[in-house]
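Hey team,

Sharing the diguanylate cyclase run so nobody has to redo it. Sequence (316 residues) first:
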Amino acid sequence: MLSAYTKCPDILIVDDDSTVVIALKKTLEKIGRVRFALNAEQALMMINEQHPDLILLDMGLPDINGLDICARLKQNPETTDIPILFITSNIEVGFEEKVFDVGAADYILKPLNPRVVSARVKTHLAYHRAIQLLDTQAHTDSLTNLANRRAFDKQIVIEFKRALRVQDPLTVALIDIDEFKKYNDHFGHIAGDECLKSIATVLGESVKRPTDMAARYGGEEFAFILPHTGTNGARKLLYKLLTTIEQLNLTHAPDATYQAVTVSIGYSTLNPENVTSIEHDYAAIIEAADTALYESKQKGRNCLHYNPLALAAPST
Ligand SMILES: Nc1nc2c(ncn2[C@@H]2O[C@H](COP(=O)(O)OP(=O)(O)OP(=O)(O)O)[C@@H](O)[C@H]2O)c(=O)[nH]1
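Structure output:
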């Protein structure tokens, strides 16, 4: 969360006039790390490699029109939030409308005044960071620092659609702390919160791929979204998780089944061979994992169960 505030901003200048680039670089190096591209193709490659925090974009590039690049970046969900400021000497009629219609944040007129450039860039970087921070907070569980339910609900839709589209396996696991009511009743809610945090730390450390998600699903229940992960891979990861949590050896309430705090896990996998349409409903995989979790609870807790995903034909 803090990184959005403390990170040195990455600014990309896109202009074919090297004198403009040199002047801008000198001004902006006091604000952040500055990269530059002399044409659109180079710029798009650099943006793809690492998303900048702000782009200063010349309207009249030699290869692709600046307005077209801006429109393209705004249509891509991965780059849509990057503030784009046009630099231009073009003040023909209708120019302002065009700039804002394609989604630019602002424009700066040439000849460039370093103080104006600096002020505008700082303002837009500050807006951008504030939005990023709010977005992170809105998607983070404040007790455990894991992704929250809102983040999970968004991500499962994206990953389920992606898995259907590219015929890639996807596993969802639900992980529930066993007899947590007894823990709270015996040790109190503050100790209960500490226990939740300890378990959440293990969960966060168990998923290693950047596309994996560990989320607090609600109360004492957590969830994993594991893209590119089939049943066998998921079983290994989840079995290890089960034993790691037991080995934390967090003393449970005296009336609990196990001496140490344990979890029950249910999981289900979307396997490409079962996919008959890209319109299947993502809720099915959560329901399947939930049924498997119920089975783990029924079979004595501190165990994991798998429930195969039966995909119903999508309603037309
Ligand atoms: N301390 C604390 N307790 C919570 C939190 N969220 C949910 N709980 C507690 O978690 C407990 C869940 O109890 P139940 O749903 O009965 O389930 P359980 O006792 O874990 O039993 P099984 O799931 O069947 O193993 C309740 O006592 C909730 O109050 C929280 O944020 N902090």
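The CA atoms of residues 12 and 36 lie 5 Å apart.

Ping me if you want the raw files.
A.
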